Amino acid sequence: MTKGKSIVVLLFAVLWVGALQVLAQPAISPEMIEQFKRLTRAEQEALARDYGVDIDQLQKQQSVQSVEIGARPASPAEQLDAPGAPEEVVRTSAKAEFLVTDADLADDETEFAEPVSLPRFGAGLFDASVSTFAPTDNAPVPPGYLIGPGDSFNVYLYGKETGDHTLFVNREGMIIFPKIGPVQVAGMTYEEAKSSIKQRIESQFIGVSSIVSFGRMRAINLVITGEVSTPGMYSVSALTTVTQALFTVGGVSEIGSLRNIEVKRLGESVIVFDAYDLLLRGDIRNDIRLHNGDVVHVHTVGPQASITGAVNRPAIYEIKTGKTIGDLV
Asked: Taking the domains of the chain in order of start, what are their residue ranges?
């Protein structure tokens, strides 16, 4: 018997004794197991018959011995990579890896920050909860203001004759002064009307001087439509501008544009107001004073873009056609 076969015989004897008597595990070297595995099936069966051993039972015992002496069972991944791996192993391995992934995610205590809800730029301009709008009845008369029906003048006389008169401009554009008669003032600026009244008094009364001041300002009717909080017809001061009119109705709605606010007069478009000019540059040139019968129409919001991160004003911005990312930043 050759030396290789002697080693194999010794391996059979050790395994057989261990299986019957369940004694302390022998120290079987990996070289002995490899030599037995290299034998052909016919040689393995011949050795088994010589020693009266069932080769199938011996192989099972060999597997038990290998595990007990410290052999590491193949991982699912190794079974999956092994040539000829059964389909059951492939399914089991894939399922095990999937479950491990779910468990890892479930045990992950990393806190993810919730997405920040960006405000719409300029929406706070007409915030109804902040009372920044005040009536313009007591405001100084601006240069260029034209007198019209409904305006009034306070006239105080002193000298040889005294008196205090409140005079309203009628629908014909005149004031009726006692002892003097009608004085045409409609269409004049405040300064022109004031000068005309004083000259008429001094020419009619000798030794009488006068003080003329502006009284109550007339109201005008506006129609405010489109995407605003409360559209409708409003009676407001004649000094009301586009932004003041929007304050009156509670501002634009969530889908209203801040950059496309159109003023129409007698059916014609007069101007388009862009609130970004006011917010970003303080430009009020297009925030014009409205006239009686004007229509203020707020269009639907246009294209929008969000910007966040290391910027001065992270928000949602309404952009005009032709603008670039650089313009937005």
From this structure: 3-73, 78-104, 152-214, 218-329
CATH superfamily, with its number, for domain 152-214: wza like domain (3.30.1950.10)
25 and 18 Cβ atoms separated by less than 8 Å? yes
What is the tens place of the pLDDT at every residue in 291-307? 999 999 999 998 888 88
- Specify whether the CB–CB gap between 304 and 319 falls below 8 A: yes
Question: Which amino acid, 213?
Answer: S
Reported CATH class of domain 218-329: alpha beta
Determine if the pTM surpasses 0.85: no
Bridge-based pairing of strands 219-226 and 295-300 is: parallel
Q: pLDDT tens digits for 87-138?
A: 444 444 444 343 444 445 445 545 545 556 888 887 778 765 544 455 556 6
Cβ neighbour number for residue 8 with a 10 Å cutoff: 21
124 Ramachandran zone, left/alpha/beta (phi>0; psi -120 to 50): alpha
Cα torsion 63, 66, 68, 71: sign: negative
**What is the SS3 string spanning the chain?**
CCHHHHHHHHHHHHHHHHHHHCCCCCCCCHHHHHHHHHCCHHHHHHHHHHCCCCHHHHHHHHHHHHHHCCCCCCCHHHHHHCCCCCHHHHHHHHHHHHHHHHHHHHHCCCCCCCCCCCCECCHHHHCCCCCCCCCCCCCCCCCCCECCCCCEEEEEEEECCCEEEEEECCCCCEEEECCCEEEECCCCEHHHHHHHHHHHHHHHCCCEEEEEEECCCCEEEEEEEECECCCEEEEEECCCEHHHHHHHCCCECCCEEEEEEEEEECCEEEEEECHHHHHHHCCCCCCCECCCCCEEEEEECCCEEEECCCCCCCEEEECCCCCCHHHHC
d(CA 164, CA 184): 20
Same fold, 152-214 and 218-329: no
